[in-house]
Specification:
The complex is a heterodimer. By secondary structure, chain A is mainly α. Chain A has helices at about 5-10, 15-45, 60-95, 100-115, 120-130, 140-165, 170-175, 180-210, 225-235, 235-275. Chain B is an alpha/beta fold. The chains are: A mainly alpha, B alpha/beta.
Chain lengths: ~280, ~250
């Protein structure tokens, strides 16, 4: 499938002069990038970051197992957190769209509150305030719940924008056939709305995943926390953070690719077949 | 006593802000009658059509369907709507489901008909409107004419007592108008009660029993079709027919 790139849509095709200029800037940018990389490597060498004492432990299986355990916790917290955020976001969206004025106002307030407050504050709340109330939570929930709460308002708004994007005619057609509100929503509106917003929901999953890196605050042994343990064990800050950063980038990159594919599958599917026919 | 009319409007009024879009409309449509509504845009003909199944609310007046007042909300309204089929200008097929699903869904969801039975009936209807071979495709893969015929099949699947058509061919390319009109013509021949908002003068002349000419929220003329086209009583109706026919040349 030949999808137009964004620059084809936004800008006209470059002429010969522009093409020459683009080539020049591309070469300049590449040179700059190479220079930057060289400077980093040089600085690493100068400060002795390539010394074996900073890297030898990556040859040990236990290191990777330890990081792997952290990764499992991170993924678990991100997935459970996202699922909770989706559930809560769905309820908030329903409350804001339907419901009586009081419920609508309450849901709007909750959405704005959870969207406006930084995740870290929710985490401190669960870390410092909640234990005082006698509510015993494991470290896993102390990170997962605040991440979910922090994301649910954004999810609610994403879902709502999807619902609003469903053409009015879909609703009218269903009403004219005798559908009532609840069935109409679940059978006609929501299945279409969710297709519109899956990419932004997956983007939100990436944010939840990144938020879980605060887990060390509540002593939850996620990837970040285990990395910190390794750092204090081996006194090797840069090498470990570098490896952990690469792991996070890889996961989020895969999620973004997944989002692109799902979006293309849902949006392009029908029209692509039609073009082929 | 005269038989109960299929649709009856008594002194219906509606305003959009300061615009008086339906002005004291009274109208009866008998069982099996085919009534065409014509008039310039903004004359209130779509609003009239949509008021009959309460997609548009009215400010005052009464609407009766087979002698029963049109319910205002809830289950009674939904049940009444299921007896009134509607075809839209923009087809409004459910974009996320196949053509077959589009025709099967409402009988299953609203009437609780079994899947097997709904499928059989849906295929029969799709056959009838000539798009059975497209049953497994999604709406976006069909031409406008095919989509509109499928939309008619979807409405018929509820076995309505009356069909409302709100400019069913206005969004179609010229070469597809004929296929939709022929399905509608066939439906009319079978005795379906129909209210059709349209600009298709030939359809109005050859298929309908009565023509309503609307302008500025009023029904200016309500005549048997032949009479209307041979010698419209209203000067403005005459001018309108002429202008439409000239634009079609």
């Amino acid at each position: 499938m030949n999808r137009p790139e964004i620059q084809d849509v936004l800008y006209e095709a470059p002429g010969p002069k522009t093409r020459r200029r683009i080539r020049l800037f591309t070469i300049l940018a590449l040179l700059l990038l190479a220079g930057l990389l060289a400077a980093i490597v040089r600085q690493f060498a100068v400060t002795g970051q390539f010394q074996p004492k900073y890297w030898f432990f990556f040859a040990r299986l236990t290191t990777w197992r330890f990081l792997g355990e952290g990764l499992v916790t991170t993924l678990g917290a991100a997935l459970v957190g996202s699922a909770l955020a989706f559930g809560m976001g769905f309820l908030l969206m329903r409350g804001k769209i339907r419901g009586n004025p009081v419920l609508r106002w309450l849901c709007t307030a909750l959405i704005e509150f959870t969207r406006g407050v930084p995740t870290l504050l929710f985490i401190y709340f669960f870390f410092l305030i909640v234990p005082g109330t006698g509510w015993k939570l494991s470290a896993f929930w102390k990170i997962t719940l605040p991440c979910a709460i922090s994301a649910c308002g954004v999810v609610a708004e994403a879902l709502r924008s999807g619902v609003n994007a469903v053409p009015k005619g879909q609703r009218e057609a269903a009403l004219s056939l005798g559908y009532r509100e609840t069935k109409l929503f679940y059978r006609i509106i929501f299945p279409q709305a969710i297709r519109f917003v899956i990419p932004s929901l997956i983007a939100e999953l990436v944010i939840v995943l990144k938020d879980t890196t605060f887990a060390s605050i509540v002593s939850c042994a996620d990837l970040m926390q285990n990395a910190k343990v390794l750092i204090s064990n081996y006194d090797a800050l840069l090498s470990i953070y570098l490896v952990v950063a690469v792991i996070y980038i890889l996961i989020n990159y895969m999620l973004n690719r997944l989002s692109d594919r799902v979006a293309r599958l849902l949006k392009g599917g029908g029209s692509a077949e039609r073009r082929a026919a | 006593m005269a038989p109960t009319p299929m649709i009856e409007l008594r002194q219906v009024n509606k305003h959009y802000g300061r615009l008086h879009v339906l002005q004291n409309i009274s109208l009866t449509i008998g069982k099996g009658e085919v009534v065409v509504v014509i008039g310039p845009s903004g004359s209130g003909k779509s609003t009239l059509c949509r008021a009959i199944n309460r997609l548009e609310t009215i400010d005052s007046g009464e609407i009766f369907i087979e002698g029963q007042p049109l319910p205002q909300e809830g289950k009674p309204l939904a049940e009444m709507r299921s007896r009134i089929g509607m075809v839209f200008q923009s087809f409004n097929l459910f974009a996320h489901r196949t053509i077959l699903d589009n025709v099967m869904m409402a009988p299953m969801d609203v009437k609780g008909i079994s899947k097997a039975e709904a499928r059989k009936e849906a295929m029969r209807l799709l056959e009838r409107v000539g798009v059975a071979d497209q049953a497994k495709k999604v709406p976006a893969q069909l031409s406008g004419g095919q989509q509109q015929r499928a939309a008619i099949a979807r409405a018929l699947a509820m076995h309505p007592d009356v069909m409302l058509f709100d400019e069913p061919t206005s969004a179609l390319d010229p070469e597809m108008i004929g296929e939709v009109l022929s399905v509608m013509t066939e439906l009319a021949r079978e005795g379906m009660t129909m209210l059709v908002v349209t600009h298709e003068m030939n359809f109005a002349r050859s298929v309908s029993d009565r023509v309503l000419f609307m302008e500025g929220g009023c029904i200016l003329e309500d005549s048997p079709s032949e009479e209307f086209f041979l010698q419209p009583r209203e000067e403005r109706a005459r001018a309108f027919i002429q202008s439409v026919q000239e634009s079609r040349k």
